[in-house]
Predict the 3D structure of the following.
Amino acid sequence: MSTGGHCEIAVSLRGLTRTFERPDLGVPVRGLRRFWTRRPTMEAVALHPTTFHVNAGESVAFIGPNGAGKSTTIKILTGILHPTAGMATVLGHVPWLDRDALSREIATVFGQKSQLWYHLPARDSFTLLTRIHDLDADLARRRAGALCERFGLDGLLDRPVRTLSLGERMRCEVAAALLHSPRILFLDEPTIGLDVIARQELRSIIRELNQRDGVTVFLTSHDAGDVERVCDRAIVIHTGRVVFDGSIETLRRDFVRRKTISLELSSPFTGESPIMSGVVSTQLTPMRWQFQVDTTVVPAETVLAGLIGRMQIADLTITDPPMEDVIAAIYGQASSSEAVS
Amino acid sequence: MNVVRFTGAYVWANLRIALAYRAAFFSAVLGMVINDAIWVVFWWLFFTRFPSVDGYGFRDIVIVWSICATAFGLAVGLAGGAFTLASRIARGELDFYLVLPKPVILHLVVSRMDTSGWGDALFGVAVFAFLASPTPMDAVAFVGLSLIAATIFVSYAIAVNSLAFWTGRAETLSDQLIFGLITFATYPEKLFTGAVKVVLYTVVPAGFVAYIPVSLLHEWDRGWALVLLVGTIGSISVAVTTFTVGLRRYQSGNLTAMRA
Ligand SMILES: Nc1ncnc2c1ncn2[C@@H]1O[C@H](COP(=O)(O)OP(=O)(O)OP(=O)(O)O)[C@@H](O)[C@H]1O
Ligand SMILES: [Mg+2]
């Protein structure tokens, strides 16, 4: 997804792999032997060798079903986990070796883990983070002020974090993560549990950071809206393999090979519903019809050509499937199916 | 200097959290003072009946207790994170510290404060001041030796808690080892000989947290001071190495968590 010209690579993975050792419960070790035998373990693969690159300034949705290895990837890229094999660099640093330098240039937001001090007002978290990042106190205060204004945090900063609603807290979390002006923002399911409004607020905050400030965004989410509203590019992993890497439009257009043709008729059509293989037709009213076309079987144009001869069409629209359906299809898909890539 | 300011910021924040729950804070401090005092009263009663056991008197036990209580109190009061490390490793709670730019172990250690430790420290200092009749020189030595002993307590806690990287759950083991260290430290060294003594200068380093500091307080000796210094540096190295090596095995976790 390079936009041409010179592109700085922000994140790069080459064959990055992670396995976990788990007790193998299938092998019983009973009785006293438990105390001195090493419990048998098995290797569980959390991330199969994975390769991709992200350029500086991109905003990437990293998607895949539960257990695909998304959080594991983010944890390796932010220096939390060591990989089992392979290589990765983030802004030129190897995350697990160069954590200190890296952590001054990136920020991480986990929807499920708070990074604010629970019992203290968010303002105190800002003060602590100022010390942790060795920021200039005045500079940090001004930056905090600017972030608060931008994210509408007035009145929230002086209440203990434990008294904030989830939505309020998430806005504070993102503001706190941005205090040291990171160049990359990693977000792991940031909108989880938020209501529609809070979701939209958070999305537009993240979008604006990417568009206006040029912060590279790398986000995981199960929410179609997050992917569409925030990101330009999607990387899809399924059972540890990258099965799609391309623009959001391409994902929508091509991942699910299905178009919906909606027709408004100028006179009611009461005849036999047209039967074609790869097409499911639905009569909404005698004046309105809908056709789901599987474009791997028959091109939408062919279907349309057939319909034009039989129906008197006043208006027509051809739409790609909604993002929800695309994501559902991705998750439902067996690893064997070769998607566009 | 950054490290000092950083630690200071944490102490301040933790103190604010503690004071937000004032009643709990003061009862923890008071409870610990009473707990320690009961022991000293016990020893006082003991020595009024047997004034000296093997040349060992009430003042000796007072010094042992004051050093141990002060050192342990400072350790858990300022570096309480070292003592809760095992459960946080097992629950995958290190993520937060790993994405921030400070030595992870330092950050973890200062991130928690056990307020009951302030009771221990208060008690230790008071007992030393009032019952050991110290000279000004003694007082200086007491402060220095308590800080060194506290450092060893913290190092020991880090090392044994880091076993959780290998065992998954090591809270019970590490708590018992630390409890063992305190127990041995508060008894006179004379009780132990042979192999036990070797253990007390290695695996359960009561020798370094108590016996050597106490003997130095009685009588300054350059050789023993050097041994103590080497022991302190050694224990810090062991702690940092164990933690660093263990960290490669860190598994994180997906538990939903709030920062307490
Ligand atoms: N600490 C761990 N120990 C053992 N297995 C783990 C551990 N962490 C993750 N796994 C396994 O690795 C795989 C990938 O987990 P990961 O959390 O990266 O998935 P994910 O893509 O983030 O899923 P979700 O969408 O549910 O958040 C899962 O099968 C999980 O069970
Ligand atoms: Mg996840």
